[in-house]
Write a structure and sequence with these properties.
One of its GO terms (biological process) is malate metabolic process. Its EC number is 1.1.1.37. InterPro entries: L-lactate/malate_DH (IPR001557), Lactate/malate_DH_C (IPR022383), Lactate/malate_DH_N (IPR001236), Lactate_DH/Glyco_Ohase_4_C (IPR015955), Malate_DH_AS (IPR001252), Malate_DH_type2 (IPR010945), NAD(P)-bd_dom_sf (IPR036291). It catalyses: (S)-malate + NADP(+) = oxaloacetate + NADPH + H(+); (S)-malate + NAD(+) = oxaloacetate + NADH + H(+). Keywords: Chloroplast, Disulfide bond, NAD, NADP, Oxidoreductase, Plastid, Transit peptide, Tricarboxylic acid cycle. The longest helix has 22 residues. This protein is globular. The protein has 2 domains: about 130 residues, Rossmann fold (3-Layer(aba) Sandwich); about 170 residues, Lactate dehydrogenase/glycoside hydrolase, family 4, C-terminal (L-2-Hydroxyisocaproate Dehydrogenase, Chain A, domain 2, Alpha-Beta Complex), CATH 3.90.110.10. Helix 3 packs parallel to helix 4 and helix 5 runs antiparallel to helix 7. The strands form 4 sheets. The protein has a 6-stranded mixed sheet, sandwiched between helices. It has a 3-stranded antiparallel sheet with strand order 7-10-11. It contains 10 helices and 14 strands. Helices cover about 40% and strands about 15% of the residues. By secondary structure, the protein is an alpha+beta fold. The structure holds (2S)-2-hydroxybutanedioic acid.
């Protein structure tokens, strides 16, 4: 999906929906629903199957489509098959998108797909590529609010570190509830480490098991939240999570990966790393495990990034 808009909000938008020949009918149905919803800022819905026309001059590209993992498929199969989609989309963005285009990758495995798209779009700034971990952040906020009996808007400073996978690290060490450390409001560290963190990290899979399909409504909300976080100035003292290039990060994470970290935005679509976070031994160990997983994923897809080597087949 590509969006053309200038900032700041409230800003009318035109949506270009990218599908395939096989999904054209379904895409027409989605376009009909969008039109019938009378969204106040939606001015145009266009559909197409050629990324070079759909992405033309777009300001935001939301890369949502990717194959879900089927029975018997290995992680490597998903990386290889979906990775190819992001080679093509990265190249198309490089050729026709606005040079300041922001790219938000949702299709899984989203961190590594982002790395692939980024490598294939050298004309776009690396900083403008994101993989969606806002859904995980929202899940973490919800669980902390439920446990402490507060409304979720009072839960702030929540970071998701790492991969959008079960190795992700929901950070309760730096989180705040009603402006107090979450670890003071919820003093049960055993619950935080062994129930809260795994619950958030496995929530996507748990939902698929119950519902038979991937999260949809909460993902859509989190995409809107992720965009809003970049186009509005971050509240003083707070931050948000997004998976971005690790180049120049202050946390000691290997460069050349796409890793979820705490960011602040000035509201112009750009962002900066948050410097003053505490990384205790628990966080350090978990962050390292997610980093190791992403290094392995990257090593599998080197060939899709235009480099020698790399295959998980
Ligand atoms: C989610 O977190 O809900 C999804 O990314 C899960 C999935 O694999 O579709």
């Amino acid at each position: 999906m590509a969006m053309s808009s200038a900032l700041p909000l409230p800003q009318p938008i035109a949506l270009n929906l990218l599908g395939s020949e096989r999904s054209r009918e379904a895409l027409e149905g989605v376009a009909m629903e969008l039109e019938d919803s009378l969204f106040p800022l939606l001015r145009e819905v266009n559909i197409g199957i050629d990324p070079r026309s759909v992405f033309e001059d777009c300001d935001w590209a939301l890369l949502i489509g990717a194959k879900p993992r089927g029975p018997g498929m290995e992680r490597g199969d998903l990386l290889e098959q979906n990775g190819k989609i992001f080679v093509e989309q990265g190249k198309a963005l490089n050729e026709v998108a606005d040079k300041n285009c922001k790219v938000l990758v949702v299709g899984n495995p989203c961190n590594t797909n982002t790395l692939i798209a980024m490598a294939n779009a050298p004309g776009l700034a690396k900083e403008n590529f994101h993989a969606l971990t806002r859904l995980d952040e929202n899940r973490a906020k919800c669980q902390l609010a439920l446990k402490s009996g507060v409304f979720y808007s009072t839960v702030t400073n929540v970071t998701i570190w790492g991969n959008h996978s079960t190795t992700q690290v929901p950070d309760f060490v730096n989180a705040r509830i009603n402006n107090m450390p979450a670890t003071e409001v919820i003093s049960d560290r055993e619950w935080l480490e062994n129930e809260f963190a795994p619950c958030v990290a496995t929530r996507g899979g748990a939902l698929i098991k119950k519902w038979g399909r991937s999260s949809a409504a909460s993902t859509a909300v989190s995409i809107a939240d992720a965009i809003k976080a970049l186009v509005t100035p971050t509240e003083p003292g707070d931050w948000f999570s997004s998976a971005v290039s690790t180049d120049g990060n202050p946390y000691g994470i290997e460069e050349g990966l796409v890793f979820s970290m705490p960011l602040r935005s000035k509201g112009d679509g750009g962002w900066e790393f948050v410097e003053d976070v505490i990384i205790d031994d628990w966080l350090r160990g978990k962050i390292k495990a997610s980093e190791d997983e992403l290094k392995k994923e990257r090593d599998c897809v080197m060939h899709l990034m235009g480099m020698a080597g790399g295959s998980c087949e």
